[in-house]
Design a protein that fits this description.
Layout: H1 2-21, H2 24-53, H3 68-100, E1 105-109, E2 115-118, H4 120-126, H5 130-133, H6 138-141, H7 145-151, E3 160-166, E4 169-180, E5 184-191, H8 193-229, H9 237-269, E6 276-279, H10 280-295, E7 300-305, E8 310-313, H11 315-331, E9 338-345, E10 351-357, H12 379-384, H13 391-401, E11 405-410, E12 416-422, E13 427-428
Parallel strand pairs: 7-9
Antiparallel strand pairs: 1-2, 1-5, 3-4, 4-5, 6-8, 8-13, 9-10, 10-12, 11-12
Helix pairs in contact: 1-2, 8-9, 9-13, 10-11, 11-13
Length: 435
Amino acid sequence: MTKTLFTICLWALVAWLCGIWINPVTGWVILTVGLVAMILVSGVQLSQISRWVKNIDEPPPPSVGPWDEVLAPIYRKLRANRLEIDELNRNVESIMLAAGALPDGAITLDEEMAVTWCNPVASEHIGLDMSKDRGFSIFNILRAPEFATYARSEKWKDPVLLHISREGQERSLLVQLTRYGVKQFLIVTRDVTQLEKLETTRKDFVANVSHELRTPLTVLAGFLETVHDMPAPSISDEQREHYYLLMMEQARRMQAIVDDLLTLSTLESSPSGMGEPVRVGDLIETALQQARSLSKDQHVFVVNVNEDLYVAGIESELASGISNLLTNAVRYTPKDGTITVSWYLTEAGTACYSVQDTGIGIASQDIPRLTERFYRVDRGRSRATGGTGLGLAITKHVAMRHNAELNIRSRFGAGSIFSLEFPASRVVTPDDSVA
């Protein structure tokens, strides 16, 4: 505005001087021409400003006279606001990416409890499809009575546990509802299926250990009380010796259970590796000696072992797995039955150790559970033959630590085949150096 007034004053001064030097008419003509020129220039400048207003993201016209003082701060402010908006958009995108990468599910709801957004994990947990479910009530999507009761309460101090079945798969979810913003809600979902299974396994394990140890302890305590309470002359040396033998048997049983538990603990906690080249034929020969001793010449053993076939592994663990399969075959094969032990290289280049028996066999419904700790198809027979119920669980862990597969084929009343198949990458020669 100051520049405009200065320009008008300048034209008026020039016109006044010309009026004095030449004549008044000339002065008025010059003043009129100056004012008209200023109006025309202002019109051009306003036209430039009008075009710029349609695209204010671009810099303003370089020179628009008195409008420069007005447009410059406006443009600086617009530019600062644009930079701030871009920064906010980047922050929002970053937050959305972080929310999408959360290991837990996240769902946002409006004041009517309608879905507005969810991350991929939440979509997987409860089957949300944002292309179809956006704007729909969460109660129409998560149809669990426990959740409806929980969500309609006034406070949500603790999460609610839901058991949801989707596509034939059971899933356990912890669902926490909370308020945020203005009349908005956030749902956080956490998959605790595995934690529930682990907790169930832990409880079963503790119960099974207690049960397995209670029986021999009860027997042992009973005999000790009998020997202690009865007068010495009333017990013959033969009876005393018989009691001692029974007590030793129960003590050995408890010792076997503890040893197997320690073996399992070691397998689960120690790091695994490729190990060293192991001549499995020697391990099988040692296991056969133990099996024949357990059999007491009541079974026929057929042996087909490749003595020159080595695998990379940990010798003590492999010995445990090999021995467990053999002793199980002896325990569950009737007198005069045949046990066939094989160790060979398959056509696919894998190494296979198998134990086939003509024993009592296993029902199909029991096979998937055989490697569970303390699971027995016939508890009475297993205890009678000295089994701890942990042998196949140990063998399964040995297989896993050696990248092998434990395969079980059986038919009730027709015998069984247990096999450990090692991948070709584990087959080595004695001179191989294994990292």
